[in-house]
Amino acid sequence: MPILKPKIRGFICTTSHPDGCAAHVQEQIDYVKSQPALQNAPKKVLVIGSSTGYGLASRIVPAFGGGAATMGVFFEKEGTEAKPGSPGWYNSVAFEEKAKAEGLYARSFNGDAFSNEMKEQVIAAIKEDLGQVDMVVYSLASPRRTDPTDGQTYRSVLKPTGDTYTQHTLNTDKGTVEEVSIESATEQEIADTVKVMGGEDWKMWIDAMQEAGVLADNFQTVAYSYIGPEITWAVYTDGTIGRAKEHLEQTAAAMNDQFGEKTALVSVNKALVTQASSAIPVVPLYISILYKIMKEKGNHEGTIEQIQRLFTDHYCSADGPKLDEKGRIRIDDWEMEEDVQAAVLKVWESISTEKLASETDFAGYQKEFLKLFGFGLEGIDYDAETETLRPLPN
Ligand code: NAD
């Protein structure tokens, strides 16, 4: 059995720690349990993209806060005897073990959510075990998608759609502030990013489930988006990914015409360290600055706190989800408060490698990043050999 240490390559860590991942899941469960139980929570929830980041939190909150039965879909790698699998695999194993230990129904599917086969498999399982689901969370973040209707594989890019964009960025490997210039995407790259990260697949899931009769009357579905500050707009909101998120919102509107108001919503979430966000240029530097300011203000949240608030303040509140003028849920409200953004901008304007330690929470960023892979958690013996073969419980 191997001894597992972090091996960081650019913005990913190529190793993970099964017990650390389980401890990370437990931390999130403990947080949910420390909060008042959810009232009127959905009881049967499907989470697509349930193994890490926002999707994992979206599985933990209704399960451990509301007693929901959950199904999860993800694309992860199981470990071998010699090598660890991906953290999302171990998170999912830990989630299922902990859910089942408390008598909660949990079933997971590892494979390509974009495929027809996965949709058929999940629908069959819902029919078999749950009959119907009352909530579908769509939380995929993927660099590619094979569209089952034409068999073509599309790749998403993170680029501006206007002029070449030059901005500060953080080399998270070296701990240096650098300048990055990103050239504008081609029309093809924009269209391909919309294909991967837009709403097409979300709607394919909902249509397939509707046709199969596995959606409860008054079901609800939510997908996640991001807006953030102007300094990141060129590469995010106004960039290729922003176009995809625009398509997500249009898809929600189309589904609401079909199924009724507030059935399908986009929730705009806070910028947080996840495997997906660490791949976006500029964003890790923004997050490092933001974390320091929000921690000092006392309103910093991680994915679990964000999703807890999504349920308590929106899905489980007596008047249901509260929406902005564009019909979106805003749990990025604390991030976007004027004083927070003004403070971020002030640091941003003169940030340099020398000021990284004193004016940002890069240390917190690094800690959070390692935790995504199960490293740096208390109570774990990182010098011990660890079993890397961890099957999902039956
Ligand atoms: P993440 O990388 O932590 O999670 C992605 C999930 O998608 C994982 O469960 C992964 O297994 C799954 N997945 C990827 N490809 C798949 C496939 N082909 N089939 C099945 N599962 C697949 O990402 P995240 O940051 O939690 O992002 C989730 C959503 O939240 C995205 O829509 C993202 O844009 C949005 N969001 C993220 C942030 C942020 O700062 N991280 C902020 C706001 C919104």
UniProtKB/TrEMBL annotation:
<dbReference type="InterPro" id="IPR024906">
    <property type="entry name" value="Eno_Rdtase_FAD-bd_dom"/>
</dbReference>
<feature type="binding site">
    <location>
        <begin position="112"/>
        <end position="113"/>
    </location>
    <ligand>
        <name>NAD(+)</name>
    </ligand>
</feature>
<dbReference type="GO" id="GO:0051287">
    <property type="term" value="F:NAD binding"/>
</dbReference>
<keyword id="KW-0443">Lipid metabolism</keyword>
<comment type="pathway">
    <text>Lipid metabolism; fatty acid biosynthesis.</text>
</comment>
<keyword id="KW-0520">NAD</keyword>
<dbReference type="GO" id="GO:0050343">
    <property type="term" value="F:trans-2-enoyl-CoA reductase (NADH) activity"/>
</dbReference>
<dbReference type="InterPro" id="IPR010758">
    <property type="entry name" value="Trans-2-enoyl-CoA_reductase"/>
</dbReference>
<dbReference type="InterPro" id="IPR024910">
    <property type="entry name" value="Enoyl-CoA_Rdtase_cat_dom"/>
</dbReference>
<dbReference type="InterPro" id="IPR050048">
    <property type="entry name" value="FabV-like_NADH_b"/>
</dbReference>
<dbReference type="GO" id="GO:0004318">
    <property type="term" value="F:enoyl-[acyl-carrier-protein] reductase (NADH) activity"/>
</dbReference>
<feature type="site" description="Plays an important role in discriminating NADH against NADPH">
    <location>
        <position position="76"/>
    </location>
</feature>
<keyword id="KW-0275">Fatty acid biosynthesis</keyword>
<feature type="binding site">
    <location>
        <position position="226"/>
    </location>
    <ligand>
        <name>substrate</name>
    </ligand>
</feature>
<feature type="binding site">
    <location>
        <position position="245"/>
    </location>
    <ligand>
        <name>NAD(+)</name>
    </ligand>
</feature>
<feature type="binding site">
    <location>
        <begin position="75"/>
        <end position="76"/>
    </location>
    <ligand>
        <name>NAD(+)</name>
    </ligand>
</feature>
<feature type="binding site">
    <location>
        <begin position="140"/>
        <end position="141"/>
    </location>
    <ligand>
        <name>NAD(+)</name>
    </ligand>
</feature>
<dbReference type="GO" id="GO:0006633">
    <property type="term" value="P:fatty acid biosynthetic process"/>
</dbReference>
<feature type="active site" description="Proton donor">
    <location>
        <position position="236"/>
    </location>
</feature>
<feature type="domain" description="Trans-2-enoyl-CoA reductase-like NAD(P)H binding">
    <location>
        <begin position="3"/>
        <end position="81"/>
    </location>
</feature>
<dbReference type="Pfam" id="PF12241">
    <property type="entry name" value="Enoyl_reductase"/>
</dbReference>
<protein>
    <recommendedName>
        <fullName>Enoyl-[acyl-carrier-protein] reductase [NADH]</fullName>
        <ecNumber>1.3.1.9</ecNumber>
    </recommendedName>
</protein>
<comment type="subunit">
    <text>Monomer.</text>
</comment>
<feature type="domain" description="Trans-2-enoyl-CoA reductase catalytic">
    <location>
        <begin position="83"/>
        <end position="313"/>
    </location>
</feature>
<keyword id="KW-0444">Lipid biosynthesis</keyword>
<dbReference type="Pfam" id="PF07055">
    <property type="entry name" value="Eno-Rase_FAD_bd"/>
</dbReference>
<feature type="binding site">
    <location>
        <begin position="49"/>
        <end position="54"/>
    </location>
    <ligand>
        <name>NAD(+)</name>
    </ligand>
</feature>
<feature type="binding site">
    <location>
        <begin position="272"/>
        <end position="274"/>
    </location>
    <ligand>
        <name>NAD(+)</name>
    </ligand>
</feature>
<comment type="similarity">
    <text>Belongs to the TER reductase family.</text>
</comment>
<keyword id="KW-0560">Oxidoreductase</keyword>
<comment type="function">
    <text>Involved in the final reduction of the elongation cycle of fatty acid synthesis (FAS II). Catalyzes the reduction of a carbon-carbon double bond in an enoyl moiety that is covalently linked to an acyl carrier protein (ACP).</text>
</comment>
<keyword id="KW-0276">Fatty acid metabolism</keyword>
<feature type="domain" description="Enoyl reductase FAD binding">
    <location>
        <begin position="323"/>
        <end position="385"/>
    </location>
</feature>
<dbReference type="Pfam" id="PF12242">
    <property type="entry name" value="Eno-Rase_NADH_b"/>
</dbReference>
